[in-house]
């Protein structure tokens, strides 16, 4: 009854092993469908959080605007998938399985949206940033499972590759944040420096 | 696709359709004060994508219209590129007036610069920032002037600032509500006709127009709005509809119908609930 994503979140290595053993070939359409779903999820939840209503048009506009996020995820995914010589699934299937690793962020986004709508529509950015540590750490564990089981890395190699993956993802995110808030001043102020 | 996932997807689609079907955009209000001025609803502090806002300019303008706003300023932190793009796009179709702005974000103070064309340097004092905004033809508004920003607001800056955020979402909290009231008392001693402003400071949460400003303008244009703020012909409103400002101007707004809350769609919560549970199902169920 539980989805592969949720099972991955609960038991990354075992679930990835099962998914690899299925020997599903995977297609690029499946990768696109998975990416489209995450975009729909993001667009819908931003629409709800930001406007407390939702329409097709609003969701479409937000989804299209932020689609670069998925492209960025795919690009960073390529950095760790393409050079892996012991990959145990097809290239497209590897991308599909990597996208599944973002389940902690999906659950976090759903939770924060519910809180923003039902509890505090003016949620402090600092609370969002601090609680974001949970999905960040959780996703790292799942990505490490991906590197170990799907890419065939050793335990130490999986940890190193996860570190690279997260470093590049968050490095890019910080560059966007820097652009978005007009330099570091607002960020330092937010954390009280 | 499994039955559970199919049902979840159907919930998402049903929610999106219900929300779209029940959306309502109020007609632009054509309100006049007893003195014959236009009364325009404005939000001078809105953040957009690309930048630290969640919504792109074209969606923001639609949301501004839905919130019953006639005017809004895109004021990203220390940037004007998105605001200029939004203003250019707004000239292609009818709808709320878009004003180019910047939230001048410095250590110790924030100033909303509305009606500018170029970025204002933020590495200086509040008074110098205000002078730079004036040199560019804009108006300067003290943003969310709560206690931690007070040291930067010296007498020199207070004497030349055009407006200050009297109503901001922080007004919902008791301590910051008192701080806004204290700043109000202090600035009015120095500059009695400074413009009280209501702003949403909209990024990702809350809603555009959450707090708003009623601007009493002689003409329904960008220039008319900037002139009215400079002259102090504004009334700030918080989400509860409380009005702040010169009693004569408050009376004028009240005589024209007072605070008008944004419409609440009939199936708002149903559509949100359907989409949220549908997405949860698509993430969690096989």
Task: Explain briefly what this protein structure is.
The complex is a heterodimer of chains A (193) and B (286). Chain A is mainly alpha-helical.
Structure description:
Helices cover 76% and strands 0% of the residues of chain A. Chain A has 11 helices and no strands. The longest helix of chain A is centred in the C-terminal third of the chain and has 26 residues. Chain A is globular, with a radius of gyration of 17 Å. Chain A starts with a helix and ends with a helix. The relative contact order of chain A is 0.13. By secondary structure, chain B is an alpha/beta fold. Chain B contains 9 helices and 11 strands. In chain B, strands 1, 2, 3, 4, 5, 6, 7, 8, 9, 10 and 11 form an 11-stranded mixed sheet that branches. Chain B starts with a helix and ends with a helix. Classes of the chains: A mainly alpha (193), B alpha/beta (286). Chains A and B meet through helix 1, helix 3, helix 4, helix 7 and helix 10 of A and helix 1, helix 2, strand 4 and helix 9 of B.
Most strands sheet of chain A: none
Largest interface: A-B, 50 and 52 residues
* Share in helix of chain A: over 70%
Number of strands of chain A: 0
Our estimate of the beta-strand percent of chain A is: under 5%
| Structural class based on helices, strands and sheet pairing of chain B | alpha/beta
| Strand content bin of chain B | 15-25%
- What is the radius of gyration of chain B? 20 Å
Element-by-element helix/strand order of chain A: HHHHHHHHHHH
Multimerization status: heterodimer
Mean pLDDT of chain B: 93
How many DSSP E strands of chain B?
A: 11
Distance separating the two termini of chain A: 48 Å
């Amino acid at each position: 009854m539980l989805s592969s994503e949720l099972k991955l979140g609960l038991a990354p290595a075992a679930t990835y092993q099962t998914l690899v053993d299925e020997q599903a070939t995977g297609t690029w359409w499946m990768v696109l469908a998975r990416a489209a779903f995450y975009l729909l999820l993001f667009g819908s939840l931003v629409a709800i959080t930001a406007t407390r209503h939702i329409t097709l048009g609003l969701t479409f506009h937000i989804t299209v605007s932020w689609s670069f996020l998925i492209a960025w995820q795919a690009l960073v995914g390529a950095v760790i998938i393409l050079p892996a010589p012991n990959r145990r699934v097809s290239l497209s299937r590897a991308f599909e399985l990597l996208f599944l690793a973002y389940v902690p962020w999906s659950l976090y986004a759903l939770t924060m949206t519910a809180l923003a709508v039902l509890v505090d529509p003016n949620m402090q950015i600092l609370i969002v940033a601090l609680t974001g540590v949970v999905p960040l750490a959780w996703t790292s564990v799942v990505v490490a499972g991906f590197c170990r089981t799907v890419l065939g890395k050793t335990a130490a190699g999986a940890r190193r590759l996860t570190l690279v993956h997260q470093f590049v993802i968050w490095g890019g995110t910080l560059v966007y944040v820097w652009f978005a808030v007009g330099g570091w001043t607002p960020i330092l102020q937010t954390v009280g420096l | 696709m499994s039955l559970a996932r199919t049902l979840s997807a159907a919930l998402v689609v049903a929610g999106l359709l219900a929300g779209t079907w029940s959306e309502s955009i109020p007609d632009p209000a054509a309100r006049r004060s007893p003195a014959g001025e236009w009364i325009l609803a404005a939000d001078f502090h809105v953040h957009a994508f690309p930048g630290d806002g969640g919504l792109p300019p074209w969606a923001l303008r639609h949301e501004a219209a839905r919130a019953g706003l006639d005017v809004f300023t895109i004021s990203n932190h220390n940037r004007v590129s998105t605001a200029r793009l939004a203003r250019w796009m707004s000239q292609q179709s009818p709808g709320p007036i878009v004003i180019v702005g910047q939230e001048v974000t410095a250590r110790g103070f924030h100033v909303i610069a509305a009606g500018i064309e170029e970025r204002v340097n933020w590495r200086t004092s509040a008074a110098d920032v205000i002078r730079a905004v004036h040199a560019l033809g804009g108006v300067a508004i003290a943003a969310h002037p709560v206690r931690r920003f007070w040291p930067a607001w010296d007498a020199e800056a207070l004497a030349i600032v055009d407006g200050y955020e009297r109503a901001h979402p922080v007004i919902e909290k008791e301590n910051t509500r008192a701080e806004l009231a204290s700043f109000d008392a202090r600035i009015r001693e120095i500059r009695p006709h400074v413009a009280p402003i209501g702003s949403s400071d909209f990024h990702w949460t809350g809603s555009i127009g959450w707090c708003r400003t009623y601007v009493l303008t002689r003409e329904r244009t960008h220039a008319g709005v900037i002139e009215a703020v400079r002259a102090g012909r504004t009334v700030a409103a918080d989400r509860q509809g409380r009005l702040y400002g010169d009693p004569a101007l408050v009376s004028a707004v009240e005589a024209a119908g007072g605070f008008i809350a944004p419409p609440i769609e009939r199936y708002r919560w149903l559509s949100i609930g359907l989409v949220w549970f549908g997405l949860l199902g698509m993430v969690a169920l096989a």
